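ok so i was messing around last nite and threw this chain in just to see what happens. nothing serious, just curious
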Amino acid sequence: MSGADLTRGGSDINSRRNDAVRWVFFACAALSILTTFAIALVLIEGSIDFFGDVSIVEFFTTTEWSPIIQPRSYGILPLIWGTLIITVGSALVAIPVGTATAIYLSEYASSRVRSIVKPTLEILAGIPTIVYGFFALSFITPRLQGVFPQTGTFNAAAGAIVVGVMIIPMVSSLSEDAMSAVPDSLREAAYGLGATEYEVSTQVVVPASISGVLASYVLAISRAIGETMAVTLAAGMSPNITFNPLEPIQTMTAYMVQVGISDVSVGSIGYQSLFAVGMTLFVLTLSMNVFSMWVRSRYREEYQ
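result:
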């Protein structure tokens, strides 16, 4: 009789403990979601105030951006253009290097080499981005000036290169994880048909892991779009639509830094522009993340 009571008591305690743990975990998940909604709500509220004074057509179609300096103008296209230059340039650096690194680590490197190289690469992801910015100013830009003397102290090329270097670990690490998940039976079948190691890597492993590889590209590009300090230090703060990568530009994140460190008064049109730019950036990065999820689900391969 006493044994039955003890069992029931222990079961009740375990049940209450499980319920408490479940609610703690739910609270953590809810806090993350509520924080995201709070950020979106703040951006929407500030953007509504901004667009009460500025035409949304002018905001997205004109090419002059100067909300805090007279004469004022509110065309965000130079900031979007600067962000695209950095994004495309960094992708041109990171995607080939990161993919080749992932193939090497997955298919060619020994276990000992992989255990050393992969953590070393991932250390790059932990370096503060402002350090990358100083690296661009003190190393990349002088090298560019040695080849192209007309290169300015602040230029888009240095910003794109340093952001590309910064996101290489993301491309290589996530792509290597996807390639390593490909079953060995596919590799063995290809080798059995006489394929070389290069053919197995490029014609079997990469296509079989393409969903994870593409998702790593999209996530890395999203990271490049949102990069702030490295771009601000390397590329400058000159909103400028130019095809010359050796000229200074300004990205959306760099403008937000500029407003943050300026003496713009709260409630002014310059201060409200911060929310409109932030909302545009939020929508861009959210779209990229949703696209990444679609790519992963659309091209996912399942193996038994």
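not much to say yet. The beta strands are 65-66, 73-74.
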